[in-house]
Design a protein that fits this description.
Blueprint (H helix, E strand, L loop, with lengths): L1 H21 L4 E5 L2 E4 L4 H8 L28 E6 L2 E8 L2 E7 L7 E2 L3 H13 L4 H5 L6 E2 L2
Antiparallel strand pairs: 1-2, 3-4, 4-5, 6-7
Length: 146
């Protein structure tokens, strides 16, 4: 049964990716149960998969990410995706960084490091590459244990 569930999920994600790309959109990130796509293609994907809804209620197969504090739909979100299960969704306005959602998967072996701060520093490096050496120097005495 698990093989069919996994295969079905991958088929749905591949279909969503193809649908978005054929309509001149982009996929920023994709994992086993999620896909981050260009905002103007969300309705297209939701409408395409609506007939697959097995419930007697109107439930979207793909949800739109909302701010956890305000429950409002996020706008002007940026994404850095390093690999599967390693990503951050953030806002960057006037040099101010707001982290909306981040993954810590695979970072448990880093001792004495705040995962959210790591993402904050990676975002700073992305936007200010000239500060890379300065930012990374904070981590030179930190250890990874496995």
């Amino acid at each position: 049964m698990s093989v069919f569930l996994t295969a079905g999920a991958r088929l749905i994600l591949a279909t969503a990716e193809t649908l978005v790309k054929r309509n001149n959109g982009y996929v920023a990130y994709c994992d086993t149960d999620s896909v981050f796509i260009s905002p103007n293609h969300v309705k297209l994907v939701q409408d395409f998969f609506k007939p697959l809804n097995p419930y007697n209620q109107d439930v979207e197969m793909f949800k739109v990410e909302k701010d956890k504090e305000t429950n409002k739909v996020l706008h002007n979100v940026k994404c850095i995706a390093i690999s599967a299960k390693r990503y951050v969704l953030y806002g960057y306005i006037d040099e101010s960084i707001t982290i909306y959602k981040h993954s810590l998967h695979g970072l448990g072996h880093l001792k004495g490091i705040d995962g959210k701060q790591v993402w904050h520093d990676l975002i700073l490096i992305f936007h200010h590459s000239e500060r890379k050496k300065e930012i990374l120097s904070k981590y030179k005495n930190k250890y990874a244990i496995s």
